[in-house]
Amino acid sequence: MMRVDKHPVLGDREAGRRVTVSVDGAEIQAVEGEPIAAALLAQGIRVMRKTPRYGEPRGIFCGIGRCTDCIMTVDGVPNVRTCVTPIREGMIILSNLDRGGDAE
Questions:
Q1: Domain range for 94
Q2: Which of 34, 36, 64, 73 has the fewest CB atoms within 10 Å of its CB?
Q3: pLDDT tens-digit profile of 13-32?
Q4: 22 part of a folded domain
Q5: Helix (H) or strand (E) run with residue 37 in it
Q6: β-strands 18-23, 26-31: how paired?
């Protein structure tokens, strides 16, 4: 599986334990502490939201938390930048695919 080992903001990835999270109702395995977006990419999930106006797909763009292309709702909190948010056991992650993006 592909993993992000060196991140320009979060630093080097340490070997972490496997955790289970929910993404749009489906359980996936991830490595604790890696960015949410990296865990999604490792599972083949490339689209995190769609733009509100035209419904265009968005995913990781900058990868350092500056843009809003990777925002998702995490544990009920909207507009979480998933590229710099570490994953932990039991997170509930929702894409903004049918609601459009909350930030544009």
A1: 18-98
A2: 64
A3: 666 799 999 999 999 999 99
A4: yes
A5: helix 36-42
A6: antiparallel
